[in-house]
């Protein structure tokens, strides 16, 4: 039995090493959230087993949980580089299949048609606003800036204030609000499904997304000209890396010891 107990320990250490390696590899990925591996004890016993004699048969991976603590904020100066100062996720929709994704990586840019998109071409979602920049509803829509206003003046720039209002400036000096950035919140963000590129999808475990404007309810404010960096702590990950390596070596040594004991028993019998 000790062979399989130690073998499970080696597999668990390998899983932990993989998670830590993924964290380290994404230490420079904007909006990335680190994960940690959690284990649980395996015990097998019948109703007649003496509770003082239960030995246990190893451990298993209980969960790989995500840590959504805030990462450090880096100033960039670009108007469409956005960081959230509290909870919440940017909402982006794929123009190809209409799927909705959520991210903390706020690196956006404009296309030639006036759409505000992320690095994968997904369109940032906005809430509708009136001429004074007040939110008028909860219906999400693509962030699209008119390249020419009603007076025929050409678009010259865009800004985003701390309340998430996207304002478009035109050559005639007018400034028109386009919409308010829609931030998503979840009852259990740990239940979100990773889909890569520092983005997530909602699941039954996370619960349905609720949307709101920055600065209201559980949603943080918006910092324009800044990006949230990964929340990976390299020093902590390196300590975890050493620990996982030692766990792997210790379990390998246990298998080696069990092999030597078995060989000794076999030699005694012969």
From TrEMBL:
Pfam (any one): Flg_bb_rod
Domain Flagellar basal-body/hook protein C-terminal: 224-268
Domain named Flagellar hook protein FlgE/F/G-like D1: residues: 83-168
Swiss-Prot/TrEMBL keywords: Bacterial flagellum, Cell projection, Cilium, Flagellum
Predominant cellular place of this UniProt entry's protein: other
Domain Flagellar basal body rod protein N-terminal, chain residue ranges per copy: 3-33
Localization in the cell: Bacterial flagellum basal body
NCBIfam families: FlgEFG_subfam
Functional description taken from the UniProt entry: A flexible structure which links the flagellar filament to the drive apparatus in the basal body.
Family per similarity comment: Belongs to the flagella basal body rod proteins family.
Name assigned to this protein: Flagellar hook protein FlgE
